[in-house]
């Protein structure tokens, strides 16, 4: 099975190659690096034609966001069924979102899709308000930074129940592990045991967004 399209991966199993942390001369450069990482993540998950340059254009109809939210919800429910005791310790979504698949950029339908995704992040994923964005922040590019921060936080939270995470999340985990070792801190809750991905939408296997 190829790496592209593999949607759910157990924490603790080999993931994407971890890049070195490079210094950035400005916050704009760091923002571009985060966009590049998120674009690579979505490309690997769904086979999308996406990079840092067209990152916002691909997301602005809200279609990819809502479909990813529904895939995360499905993965969470699968994890809950398999690991009910451990799942009780992890905030996870129980309900997905509705989505208009015919939405065009900068239309009411696109704004509605993005708004549905935002409300799902707040209510189902419990993402803090300081990391959230509003519809116009994506559609009209008013606050790109918070769009990026919200998606990274979603990646962190969904990784707890087995959804493949962006490379930056893996880097953070390695740094946290080093600090716990140096300070002799107790380990966090153990991740799910290593194994094959349990959740693999059929359309993802064919390089399509579900």
UniProtKB/TrEMBL annotation:
Gene3D superfamilies: Calponin-like domain. It holds the Pfam family CH. GO terms for biological process: actin crosslink formation; microtubule bundle formation; protein localization to microtubule plus-end; regulation of microtubule polymerization or depolymerization. Keywords: Cytoplasm, Cytoskeleton. It is found in: Cytoplasm, Cytoskeleton. Residues 32-159 form the Calponin-homology (CH) domain. Its main location: cytoplasm. It comes from the Eukaryota. Coiled coil: none annotated. PROSITE patterns: CH. One of its GO terms (molecular function) is cytoskeletal anchor activity. This is Calponin-homology (CH) domain-containing protein. It comes from Ictidomys tridecemlineatus (Thirteen-lined ground squirrel).
